[in-house]
Write a structure and sequence with these properties.
The protein has two domains: about 100 residues, Cytochrome Bc1 Complex, Chain C (Up-down Bundle), CATH 1.20.810.10; about 40 residues, no CATH class. The chain contains five helices and two strands; from the N terminus they run H-H-H-H-E-E-H. Strands 1-2 form a two-stranded antiparallel ribbon. Helix 2 packs antiparallel against helix 3. The radius of gyration is 24 Å and the shape is extended.
Length: about 170
């Protein structure tokens, strides 16, 4: 099997920026979970911060930094909102720009797809690269998903209902 490794020279920085983008996505998920400010969000964030608190040596100061004090309060909510809406989008935008720049400069590592060869050098199988594989998958997925999607759009919200969904917002 012959395949270029994406994390090897000269694409280490491209690979690393992709991994950091994955970490930023997890940061969006963690900070965004507290924003509804209900009991489920409170306790889920409490569990996440307590997990960070178990890290030896740096855990307790890190947990206090994330919480903004010894306990989860409204200050933590403000801190998470600022991180979620200001810091993470700015970092993500800059890192996406860097990642795309590096991909444009260095190219995609597996542009010819994955080639499986025998020991004699004969090609057994050629797996197409991403655009061709995506187009092939979409040609089968999209027609099959239309009947399901049409059912969801045309069905009433409740049996015998008028289609209006009660969100509960009027009771707040």
């Amino acid at each position: 099997m012959q395949r270029k490794l994406e994390y090897k020279y000269p694409r280490e920085l491209t690979w690393l920026s992709g991994v950091v983008l994955l970490g930023l996505t997890l940061g969006f998920a963690f900070t965004g979970y507290l924003l509804p400010w209900d009991m489920k969000a409170y306790w889920a964030t409490q569990v996440g911060v307590n997990i960070a608190d178990t890290i030896p040596i740096v855990g307790t100061p890190l947990a206090d930094l994330v919480r903004g004090g010894p306990i989860l309060t409204g200050a933590t909510l403000g801190r998470f909102f600022a991180i979620h809406m200001l810091l993470l989008p700015a970092l993500t935008g800059g890192l996406i720009g860097l990642h795309l720049l590096l991909v444009n400069i260095q190219g995609v590592s597996a542009a010819d797809g994955l080639v499986v060869e025998t020991n004699m050098g004969e090609t057994l199988q050629q797996i197409p690269n991403v655009p061709e594989a995506a187009a092939d998958s979409n040609s089968r997925f999209v027609p099959g998903s239309r009947p399901v999607g049409n059912t969801g759009f045309n069905a009433p919200a409740q049996p015998g209902g008028n289609g209006n969904v009660d969100t509960g917002a009027d009771r707040l």
